[in-house]
Amino acid sequence: DLSRPEQRELTSHVQECVAKLLDEKLINDNLDWLSAHPKSYETFKMSLMEIGIQGKERNVVDHLRLSLELLLKDIFNNGKSLENQKSDIGNYLKSKNISPEISNLLERVLDYYAKYQNNKAKHDCAVLSSEVEFILYLTGTVMRFLLTNQESHNLL
Question: What is the pTM of this model?
Answer without folding.
Answer: 0.83
